[in-house]
Amino acid sequence: MTASPVPAQPASLTGTRVVDLTRVLGGPYCTQILADHGAEVLKIEPPTGDETRAWGPPFIEDTAAYFMGVNRNKKGLTADLTTEAGRQFLRAQLANADVLIENFKPGTLEKWGLGKDELQQAFPQLIHCCISGFGADGPLGGLPGYDACAQALCGLMSVNGEKGGSPTRVGLPVVDMVTGLNAAIAVLLALNERRSSGKGQYLDISLFDCAVSLLHPHAPNYFASGKVPGLTGNAHPNIAPYESFPTASGELFLAIGNNRQFAMLCAELGRPDIAADPRFTNNADRLAHRTQLHDTLSSVLAEHDAAPLADQLMKAGVPASPVNNVAQLLAHPHTRHRQMVIEQGSYRAINTPIKLSRTPGGLRSLPPAFGEHNREYGLK
Prior knowledge:
alpha/beta, three-stranded antiparallel beta sheet, formyl-coa transferase, domain 3, Rossmann fold, elongated, 2 domains, 16 helices
């Protein structure tokens, strides 16, 4: 079962107006969350457009799939903010807006007379969310930020990769997307606070801060032990067995969090003697003998197939999963059951994971063509 467009009905953010000056990923991901839940989002692009429109192939009707994935439910407008006419149009939109979200390099809006102080004075109820690489000040203040560079700088790569190998970028733009999530949370917090104060405020969200915030449990471990975390591959630094294992068909990931689950795993594998081994009695012992434990379990798991064994283990209360690829995940029956794929014509996308019973979010309109709604908002 795939999700269909939601019926025209009030959503959680119906009546909230958002001016979206963001491009690429972190900002557009944030504004799509708001748009999915009913906010009127005006995506104002420069004359050259959001560069991700060209980040293909693959393309869907001349627009890159990358762009299509994070820009649904928005109005598509174009304005040249380097001109006075463009800035006057923006001011007119802000006069009736609740939220401004932008990811310009710090100092750009100030150069145009639209800095945070000017905006707060002109629009005291406006919530102004600025997404940047490093914030406006400090040793790296004002410098541009990029997901992969943030992963490298902020330690994420240093704990991601196989032991004995090289630090590796996480295979998806996790910093950009978490920054978008934090920006959406910040906007909702500010909207809630405005109900009592009547005032807007400035929200400072940086890729750097959001990347640092992801360092759990590595930062707490370092604070407690003074030991610099390193590469452990799929293995968890604090728990064993908590990693992937080869099977007769594909990889199996085990996420054993306590002694009871470990005993259940061994029982389901027909090897209760493994749980009784003094080397594996509790988590501290299993960590101390991680290599021997991995070798022991690998020899047993080599006789099984990953997918059916994972199903058996999960139903017995043992956390386990086959290591699926993207196609396998999207075809999974539970993905269909949870309606996590939206389809409308040639448009297919991941649905919102935020499910509300009375005011559901979802697809209301397709990602806009470049400047599609200009005429509707008085632009040529």
